[in-house]
Amino acid sequence: MRLDKFVCKSTALIKSEAIALINAGKVLVNGEAFLSESAQVHENNEILLDGKRLIARPFRYLLMNKKVNTICSNVDELYPSLFNDVSIDKVSELHIAGRLDADTTGLVLITDDGRWSYNIITPSCKCPKVYRVDLSRPIADDTAEKFKQGLQLQGEQELTLPASLSVISPQRVLLTITEGKFHQVKRMFAAVGNKVTALHREQIGSVVLDVAPGQWRYLSAVEIQSFYPPAKKQSILGNSS
């Protein structure tokens, strides 16, 4: 974690105040003054401010059902921020682990733990995301095979990673992907001559959406741990016993 973020997460200071104290040499990391706010620190480091050890507040992990015409941003823009519906302290410290477009609804995971969200959004981690997709025309018979083989999207050099398609009705399908290219689902269907008319994310990894639009809840310990690699997961479980 960046040093300025750690200081903010351990105190009531805002970012500019934390940076000023760091630059003034008021913050010691393992006995040494770190003058750069961007220095990376670990929770196991001894970090002191004016001689008092700082302890970061616990990370937070939330599930939310994103409403249509809201944005995955910390501030309102053309559409309102979905964070307007998250009524907890220091909401500005939170970020989305895998954003959705304004017109897309469904499951978003929210956290202030950057290492945790990395396991969700990085393609190499192959975290599956399941979308319910409504289409403008009936799905072609060969679409599932094309998605399984990978598609060449416009402007992309590499094929999409293998995706799984399950047909619910001629114009409604479930699509599972393990990456998150820009507007990927919409571009995939455009590449096979169809158009997405509605898009809703139902599941990320083993976590399934189970709250009403605009509502949120905290993730359980099991849900949080499910996004860590097996070795890390065992360590966490061991530390909790």
Brief write-up:
The protein has 7 helices and 13 strands. With 241 residues, it is α+β, with helices and mostly antiparallel strands.
Question: What's the SSE blueprint?
Answer:
Layout: H1 3-10, H2 15-23, E1 27-29, E2 32-33, E3 47-49, E4 52-53, E5 61-66, E6 95-96, E7 105-111, H3 114-121, E8 129-135, H4 143-149, E9 164-169, E10 172-177, H5 184-191, E11 196-204, E12 207-208, E13 216-218, H6 221-225, H7 230-240
Parallel strand pairs: 7-11
Antiparallel strand pairs: 1-2, 1-3, 3-4, 5-7, 5-13, 6-7, 8-10, 8-11, 9-10, 11-12
Helix pairs in contact: 1-2
Please characterize this protein's 3D structure.
The chain is of the alpha+beta class and 241 residues long. It folds into two domains: 3-53, Structural Genomics Hypothetical 15.5 Kd Protein In mrcA-pckA Intergenic Region, Chain A, CATH 3.10.290; 61-216, Pseudouridine synthase. Helix content is 23%, strand content 24%. It has helices at 3-10, 15-23, 114-121, 143-149, 184-191, 221-225, 230-240, and strands at 27-29, 32-33, 47-49, 52-53, 61-66, 95-96, 105-111, 129-135, 164-169, 172-177, 196-204, 207-208, 216-218. Strand 3 (47-49) and strand 4 form a beta hairpin. Helix 1 packs across helix 2.
Can you tag this structure with a few keywords?
single chain, elongated, 24% strand, 2 domains, 241 residues
What is the N-to-C succession of helices and strands?
HHEEEEEEEHEHEEHEEEHH
How many strands? 13
CATH superfamily membership of the largest domain:
Pseudouridine synthase
Strand fraction equals 15-25%
Structural class given helices, strands, pairing? alpha+beta
Q: Looking at the structure, what is the overall shape? A: elongated
Helical stretch tally: 7
CATH topology tier name of the largest domain: Pseudouridine synthase
Give the CATH level 1 class of the largest domain.
Alpha Beta
Largest sheet: 9 strands, mixed
Distance between the termini: 26 Å
Mean pLDDT: 91
Helix content: 10-25%
The total number of structural domains is 2
